[in-house]
Amino acid sequence: MSIDYSARRRSLASTVSADAFAFVPGPNLRYYTGLDFHLSERPTVAFYRPAEDDLAIIVPQLETTTLESQSDAAWKVFDWNDRDGYLGAFDQAIAALGLGNKHLGLDDLVMRAFEWLALQRAEPSIQAVGAGRGMLQVRSRKTPDEIAALREAVRITEQALATVVAQAEPGQTEAEITEELHAALKEGGSTGNAFDTIVLTGPKSALPHGHPGQRALGADELLLIDFGGIFGGYPADITRTFCLGTPDPELARVHDVVRQANAAGRAIAGPGVPCGEVDRATRDVIREAGYGDHFTHRTGHGLGLEIHELPQIAEGVTDELEPGMVFTIEPGIYLEGKGGVRIEDDILVTETGTESLTSFPRGISR
User: Fold this and answer.
1) pTM: predicted TM-score of the whole model, two decimal places
2) Which of 89, 224, 292, 330 could hold 80 in an S-S bridge, CB 3.0 to 4.6 Å?
């Protein structure tokens, strides 16, 4: 996709008031500059000054070729080597950029203490501004290209789910089903797994974040699958809960309650709706059914370059949904020792309402 990184940086400058911004390797650096460096013990710090509309970077000498290959922007480069250490590069960069007595917007949700201490050592008068949340707020409003990538990630993921579930049989282990999902994702064009795939059977399905193992699926047990592929750097995240035979009557009822809760969340979501109200809609359905104590997590989370980002769909969150936001609705009920159900969809906020990017059937039967 063709990305206007300058426009993204201007959006950040209009969201957070600062004389300059400092990024470290991670999703924010990638989103605002296109650079994809590994966060390591060797510090890399990139700077953006809105007034000058310029970029600078402190970078290990061994990474300068990576910088050249990833960006055609005009960077002021302050490199350093292992022999001399990085402090001199920090001194040079801060002096050249004139950051004394300036407000520096920090990527504070990712930046480590030693990087901030090196900045402060170079210029004690730097005034730190926590800009991490503002960086995430800009990222939460997806562009058409980002939405297109998310759509394709969902398509690949649902295709893989359909293939594997159609072939699933009692006696298969969680690990075997997980391997089949990963193979189907790769065959469909996914560049990786969005997160550690969750495949749980029987009583283990009551673990919201359980790990697949060697347990085999029983004939009339629940099968919970929570996974996602990646396309263009953007992930899908879908959960469905099945029974390949005849489910326990209470678990069948629980599945129906969760399906209704998911539908209630999707029905109320839209531009201008507080995130907490979406959570309330799903939670009220589950509470009224008598299972409120068994819904133990938030209703959903944002999707983007990271699998968990803004918006946060949780109790008490007053942030309002905006067009372009993509998030999950994933209510669940978990009965310890018996089984659990979660149904998760990926939702796009439009100008007039919402669209569910996921469309895989939500019933208990495959």
Assistant:
1) 0.94
2) 89
